[in-house]
Task: inverse folding
């Protein structure tokens, strides 16, 4: 478990997600989907049921190079992030990063705290060599954050995301460990 003080003075508690978090995670994902157009899903479009989320968390825990973190302020789920390592031997040195933060905690340091923990974990596995992520190419704040942590843009997929009737490019970034 890690603790971080947010810019507004509140304490953020970061820990690995547990099956008992499943119901809260599903509600959280349905909420954050409506707070940002920079996710792959919208409000109330969480792909998991509570039981499905529990199974996802169990599946994640089977690979020692995977990590799913949740961050709480008070008792409220404020943010989440995960590293999902590849299972195929030839690409098992790679992992994908995903991160979400509730809007009221944007620009407070929650994402930085999560990234710090995930990158530390990835380096300590001894098996992971690269972290990859996808980000909306127009999400300037997220790109700036990732660059601060050493991520570099390595590719772009045109018109990958669609929100309402507008298309946005996907910027592919990676961090060599």
Result:
């Amino acid at each position: 478990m890690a603790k971080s003080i947010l810019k507004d003075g509140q304490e953020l508690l970061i820990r690995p997600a547990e099956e008992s978090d499943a119901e809260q995670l599903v509600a959280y994902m349905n909420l954050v989907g409506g707070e940002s157009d920079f996710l792959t899903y919208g409000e109330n479009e969480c792909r998991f049921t509570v039981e499905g989320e529990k199974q996802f968390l169990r599946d994640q825990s089977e690979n020692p190079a995977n990590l799913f973190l949740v961050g709480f302020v008070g008792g409220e789920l404020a943010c989440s992030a995960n590293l999902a390592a590849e299972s195929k031997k030839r690409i098992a040195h790679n992992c994908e990063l995903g991160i979400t933060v509730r809007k009221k905690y944007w620009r407070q340091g929650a994402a930085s705290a999560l990234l710090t923990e995930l990158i530390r974990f990835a380096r300590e596995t001894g098996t992971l060599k690269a972290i990859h992520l996808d980000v909306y190419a127009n999400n300037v704040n997220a790109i700036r954050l990732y660059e601060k942590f050493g991520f570099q843009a390595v590719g772009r997929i045109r018109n990958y995301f669609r929100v309402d009737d507008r298309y946005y490019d996907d910027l592919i970034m990676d961090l060599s460990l």
